[in-house]
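FORM 7B: Structural annotation worksheet

SECTION A. Query
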Amino acid sequence: MNEKEIHLRDYLRIINKRKGSIFTFFILTLLIVIIATFTATPFYFAATKVLIERNTTAALTSGARYTPYDPEFIETHNQLIMSSAVVEKAVKSLNPEKIYDTFFTKKEEEKNSYISSITGWIKDQYVSFKEMIGIEKLASDSTDKDIVEKLIPDKPDVPLAKAKILEDIIKNNISVSPVENSRILQIGYMSDSPVVAVQVANAIAQAYIDELVDMQMEVSGYSIGWMKKKAEIQRANLEESEKELYEYKKKHDIVMVEDKITVLPERLSDLSRQLTVSETKRKELFAVYDQIKNVKKGQLETIPVIVGAPSIESINLKIQIADQKISELSKKYGPKHPRMTTAKNELNTLKNAKYQELGKVVETIKNEYLLAEANERDLKDLLAQTRFEAARFGEKSIQLGILQRKVDTNRYLYDALIKKMKESGITERSQDVNVWVIEQAQLPEYPAKPRKKRNILLGIILGLFGGLGLAFFLEYLDNTVKTPEDVEEKFDIPVISTIDFLKDKEQTIIQNVFEDSSSLISESFKGLRTSIMLSSGDNPLKTLLISSITPGEGKSSVSACLAVTTARAGKKVLLIDADMRRPVQHKNFNLENTSGLSSFLAGVSDGKGLELSTPTENLDVITAGPIPPNPSELLGSKRLITLISDASEIYDRIIIDTPPIASVTDPIIISQHVDGFILVTWAGKTTYEILGNGIKKLREADAPITGLVLNRFSAKKSGYYYNYGDYYYSSDS
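SECTION B. Predicted structure
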C-alpha cells in the first residue's frame, strides 16, 4: 500500500467529519466548567503588607554588622511568618470559638435553582453510595463543623481542640509573597468568609512582629543576665580593694600626709593605666597589621577593617553604580560606543582610585601601629623611671600606690559593666530587624475564587482543543474505509462509483431505482453504468461479477439496480443470482424461487424457462433456486460455464450476484469465467485490513478486477464537500 501524504485539507476533513463529536465535547466541557464555577464556594483573599528593614548600625551587644543584601533574608522571614509559633500567637489573639464557628458554619438556605438541584442530587447519590459500601452514614444536614467536633474527645477540651484545628487550617492557607524589587512582604489569607480573611491576615502580621520582638528580648535577656552576675562580682572586688586601701593608710598613719606621698603613686597609676590601654591598642593594631602583611596580593578587600573604611565603602558604592551604568548602556550601545567608552573609563578611574585608597588605608594602619608601638615603649620607659623615683619614697608609698591602682581598676571595670548593662537595655528596645505594617488588610468586595471569566475562558479553550483532540483520536482509531481517494492510494484500485445509501433502507432505494429513473439514486447507478462502459475501452465487459468482502455490504442491491439501469439504456441484460446461500434477487423482483440456478446446475432442470421476465423491459433474472447443500461444487461445474457462454450470445450484458469472498470461494471460482469483477464495500464499516485481504485474494486468483463501488458513502458525513460519483457520471444520450 502507498503512504498517503497528509495535507491541510485532510485535517479540515476530519474536523468537518467529527464536528458533532467536537461540538458535543465542547458543550459538555463548558457546561461542566460553568456548573463547577457557579456552584463552587466563593473564597475571599485579604492581604497585609509589611516593610522589613535591617538595622545598619552595629548591635550593641554583639557588635555585628549586616551586609546591605542577603539573598536568604526574605526567604528566612517567609518561613518565620508561616511558622507554628507565629500562627499560634495569631490564633490566641483571635477569638478561636467565634472564628471556628465562622469556618465551619454551613449556610442553611440553598439557592432554588436548577444548578442547586443537580448538586443536591449528586450529594444524595454520594451518601447512598457510602451506605451501600458500608461506610458509616453521616447525617444529611451534617456540616464540616459537626464532623470535626466528632473528633474532639472531651467537652472540657473543646476550645483547645478548636484552637489546634484552626492553627492547622490557618498554617495551610497562609500565603507569603515578596513584592518585586522591594523589601515588602505581602501576607495573605484566603477564606470563604471575607471577615475571617481580613482578621487572620492582620493577626498573622501582628503575631509576626510580636515574635520578632520576643526573639530579640530573649537574646538580650541572656546578655544582660550574664553582665549582672559579673557586675556583682566586680562590685565586691571594688569594695574589698577600697577596704584594703583604707586599712593600709590607717595602719601606717599616712592618712594625714596623703597629699605628700600620693603624687608619685597617682602618677604611677596613671602611667600604668595608659600603658594598659596602649598595649591593648598596640595588640589590636598588630593583629590587623600582621593580617595585612600575610594576606595575598589582591585580597586586601577580604579584611573587614579595610572594607569597612568609609573611603573604601564610598568608592565601592561608586563602582557598583558605574557597573550598573555600563550594564544598562550595553543593552543600547556597542562596546565601542562613545558613551560605553566613557563609562568604562570612569569605572577604570574608580578602580584605580580604589587601589590607591587601599594603599592609603594600609599605610594609615601601618603608621598607627608603629605609633602605638613607639607610644608603648615611651610609656614603659616613663613608667620605669617613675617607679625608680617612687622607690625612694619607700615601701609604704609603693604599697599605697598598688592598693590605689587596684581600687581604680576595679572601679573602672565596674563602671564599664554598668555602662554595658545600660546600653543593652537600649538594645532591648532596638531590634536588629525593623518591621512596620504599611498596609492593613481590607475587606474584599469580590471573591478571589472562583475566577469566573478565567474559568469560562479555560473551559472554552479546553473544550475546543479537547474536542479537536478527541476528533483526531477517534479518527486514529477508525480503521474503516472512508473515502475513494484513500482506497485508490492504499490499494491502487479504481473506485468507479459511490452510492449514498445512508438516508433510507436498501429495499426502499431499490424500489426507488425501479420506479423512478430520474431520482438521485438512479443517477448514481447511471454513473456506475457509464464508468463500467468507459473502463472497458474497445473490449466491452459483457459478463460482470459483483461481490463484496463481507455480508451486508449491499452487493445484491447494487447488482439489481445496475441491471435495471443498464436495461433502461436499451441493453438486453441477464441478472444471475449466484448467491445460493442467501438469495435475495427473487425478493427484489417479486419472482418465484421454486426453481432456479441451483436446480439447473444440479441437473434437476433442463434450463427451459430458467430466465424469468421482470417488469423492466430488456431485463431477465435467473433466481438462485432452492438452497443446495453444496453450492461451491455446483458453481464450479461445467454447466455454469455453459450457461454463461450460451447467455452471452443472447444478452448484451450478464450480471452475476455472488456470495461475499471472505466467507466462501464461490466468487473466486466464477471470476475465472467473466470479463469483469466489481467489488462492493461499505464505507465506514469495512476496515482497510479486511478490504486489503479480499483484494489480495482476488489478485492472487488473477481475477479481472474492474473497480470498486463505495456503498453507503456520504460525502458530507465523511467531511468532503463533493460527490465522488459525479466524476464518473455521464448522462445518457
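SECTION C. Observations
The chain is about 60% helix and 10% strand. The CA atoms of residues 247 and 659 lie 142 Å apart.

SECTION D. Sign-off
Analyst initials: ____
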